[in-house]
Amino acid sequence: MIYADNAATTKMSREAVAAMLPYFEEYYGNPSSLYAFGQKAKEDLEDARKRIASCLGADPREILFTSGGSEADNQAIMSAAHSGAAKGKKHIISTAMEHHAVLHTLDKLKKQGFEVTLLDVHENGIVTAEEVRNAIREDTCLVTVMYANNEIGTIQPVGEIGAVCRERGVLFHTDAVQAAGHLPIDVKAQNIDMLSLSAHKFHGPKGIGVLYARRGVLLETLISGGAQERGKRAGTENLAAVMGMAKALEIACSNMERNAERMTAMRDRLIEGLDRIPYGELNGDRVHRLPGNVNFCFEGIEGESLLLLLDDKGICASSGSACTSGSLDPSHVLLAIGRPHEVAHGSLRLSIGEDVTEEEIDYMIAAVTDVVTYLRNMSPFWRDLVNGKRRHVFSE
Ligand SMILES: *Cc1c(COP(=O)(O)O)cnc(C)c1O
Prior knowledge:
Blueprint: E1 2-3, H1 14-20, H2 22-25, H3 36-56, E2 63-66, H4 69-85, E3 91-95, H5 100-111, E4 115-119, H6 129-135, E5 140-144, H7 158-168, E6 171-175, E7 194-198, E8 209-213, H8 239-254, H9 256-275, E9 280-282, E10 293-298, H10 303-312, E11 315-316, H11 332-336, H12 341-344, E12 347-351, H13 358-378, H14 380-387
Parallel strand pairs: 1-11, 3-4, 3-5, 5-6, 6-7
Antiparallel strand pairs: 2-8, 7-8, 9-10, 10-12
Helix pairs in contact: 1-8, 3-8, 4-5, 6-7, 9-13, 10-13
The chain binds pyridoxal-5'-phosphate.
Pyridoxal-5'-phosphate (PLP) binds next to helix 4.
């Protein structure tokens, strides 16, 4: 089997699993307990916080553990919005291609009377800092722009956006779930006020993530109860998962350059191979994209059928994001970069892992080429294109 859906989730590394195990049976104390056994748990939790902070260029006090990327996004956006509203600022800037954890939170805020500007992401799937600058108003309380897109892999100029926001005194949040462990993060240098990450996207466990919030940024609690996480997130800490996350992030960050170089070469080999399929096109910028992301649209194809046939050939791939598959709506990201509906339905995302081989890349190229040809030969829609009854969107 070739697992090419690393944007959906990743396999845990042996080291991350090993880092967790002692906390299930040996050091299972509650970090809030006063006896030494509980204090050992507390010390290890704080040590993990320190190690994670240092991977991000943050202070340990700025690291809040959450249940994952979605919760971190929700808390960051809700906090900034409500503290903005207290000062009469109810305008938020974001993009049309954010993860649903961001977009649905913004929808909620719209119902509470906030105004949301979604910036155009253009055909290449990238917003510019200049566009952010032009959208900022007197009443803007938050800019939230993702670091890297989960579907098409495009990388946003977060450092430049951060500089603009800092200059204008507007809070800047970035959903860095796809970036963490894969792209350099330095919250101070990049002027990031809040950042979300999730361990299961970099070979850590599911159900654990981080909200980085710069000192001085007011946070509101989504989960009320005990005083854990400086009173900002109640609930007994998921210590084992935190330990696994810290280990996975350290490994990812220390191997980042080497992994990126190797994966970029593999990615480009895959893109080159799929580019040879007629009437298909790469989605998103060719250069400013995650080292592991390949995303194509093919004319005359149903994404779902493509996935099922690739599954038969032992390839785990995705069409759009894991969250929208299962629904018949085309991906909002592909629509945001201007793909027409009929083409957006025929999308394929292959997100490769660090250990992918050249043989696997070549096998994927051959398999996708075969399956696209097979499906087109059966498709009445494709016949219309061939007969000239319908017009092609892409060139050959
Ligand atoms: C996966 C993902 C999330 C959600 O993270 P969870 O930990 O699964 O809640 C949010 N944003 C992006 C960009 C993602 O890829």
